Amino acid sequence: MINIISEAGDVSSNEVIEYLLSFKKNFKRFNVEDQSSLTISIDDNNLNLPFKNTFHRRARLNTLSNDHKNSIFRVYLKNEENPVIKSLEYIAKKENHNYVGEYNDEEQHNKIIDLYIAKGVGLKIPKTIVSNNRSDILAFFHDCNKKIITKCIKYPLNIRLQNSSIVGKNTFFVKQKDIKTLAQINTLGIYQEYIEKQFEIRVFFYKNEIFPMAIFSQQNKKTKIDYREYDEENPNRYVPYKLPINIEEKIKLFCVNKNINTGSIDVILDNKDNYIFLENNPQGQFDWVSKSCNYYIEKFIAEDLVNHEEKSIINLSEK
Hints:
alpha+beta
């Protein structure tokens, strides 16, 4: 059986399913908003996992009833559920059950570790410090010719006020006066050198296939620092892009070392023709990459799930 784990409103999951319907293939969808039944069997002679051919697109498998939504035991029950969901993903991948995507890596996503892994496989990365010390941040500011940026280390800022909210998920320039207003020992922040670039590259990867897209964000003041500051009136141009073979191989090696099999990677091409790794998003959106570049990624994923299912049926019949 083909399985889709996602959120009810996820566009990409919907489009993968549309292809499965057009192929007349059976599938099951498990949304995080709904309670799912789960049984895992492990003994000396048997290993039975219910999710053997799965595209895990968003969120996670949910085994808790909505009756527990406001229960005083909800946090306890979620903590009990977590290791089960993680073990399911871990074993499915170890057993080569075509489990693509995961909740585990999204939860443990760590930008600092990603930079470390990228550096280890030979990808260039920006100068980076993580610090709560004003003097060190100021020294880094001058070392980077007074051009540094910052963004959230992991979670986007989302503070709900009485009549409004404060939201911050994008990249910002840091000025010297901003640093001087900090206490000598402040809260931790991540700071990177600002690199002048020709354009940005979004790379979606699925198993051993990569789908790169160039984003021409530099001619627009609104998107120059971060293309996520979308300009609806004057949108950026998106085109298919071919990465050099050595960069492709390093990206694939990054995925191997991080033990992930799908996600999105952000890269830039600087003014000296260097490819610079910025970050990895384990569950990054890819529908805009697919549509802008005519990659038909959703069809590619659906075909992979179907091919794996057909191979499994053939293997069972031979036995």
